Amino acid sequence: MTRTTPPRPADIAAAFPELIPLARTATRLHPRPGSPSPRDSSVGGPLLWPAHEPWPHCDGPHWASDLLPARSPADVRQLRRLEEAARAGLPHTLQEQAEMARIKAGHPTPTGPIAMLALAQLYVHDVPVLRRPGEADLLQVLWCPFDHGEQNMPRTELLWRSSTEVTDVLTPTPEPDAVQYGDYLPEPCPVDSEQIVEYPAAAELDEELRRRVAEWSTRQTAGAGPGGLYDGAQELFYDHELSLAPGWKAGGWAPWSVTDPHPRYCTVCRSRMEPMLTVASYEWQPDGPSWVPYEDRAAAASPTVYPTLANPTRINLAGGYNQQIYSCPASPEHPHATLLQ
Ligand SMILES: [Zn+2]
Ligand SMILES: [Zn+2]
Question: In the chain, where are the structural domains located?
């Protein structure tokens, strides 16, 4: 199914022509649960992986906590089924209650190497904004589904390949014996890519322009009533609805929330890195409703569906943040960088 982002509620480029040179194309990926094949672009789907090629593992070190126990992927999926049933009004049997208690208790984080988890794969024909090395046409993204170091997020690996060179596909796609808690295990979702235009977050604009954009935003939302979306936060209109799309996307501008903007530099050539891929917890937030695609509007308005519809991949980073992946503009083969935002 096609997903279409509605036009922005105001024409920011007409109001501020100085933003026009800063416009960037981003590709919203619109992942939605389904049954992708290795020949499809997907989040959490099977990878087009050569049968003879060893599957990567992570040696850690892995953060371990009793609060976020390890669970098997099968247990995480079973827990999601049981929770969906409860949401649909089906009471759990005593046996199901016991099973949920067992799954929630989990087990300790494994101590040995952990098989990487297929997070996403994107074909360049679906996501032309990706800058690829040579003839490669497929970006594969894997992560180790445990928190690593001080970043409190999974460790991510990127791999480019030429899909025509893969004739014998490894099936099924391997997965680890355990994942942390369950928030890092994606549901299989085909993607439906859409090109949009983005502008930098207000925090990335120079101070004078940022001030004028904030004043303009306040005027635009002057009629915001008490308790309304922009009541007490009128200057956020630009950030929430006109600049950056929420959700999974390639290219565009980076979201900033945990830290102030600070540039990332390539460890090989010192080039300033650019946003490549946003791994998102949510496809939209209540404070930016204009980003909900037309095709999801009716369902998104239903209180019984929320929050599942806005969180189709079931990934949840630190309670709702994004993993921002940066690449080097000089060479897609230089190492990428990640940041929790
Ligand atoms: Zn790891
Ligand atoms: Zn570089």
Answer: 1-30+192-341, 35-69+108-186
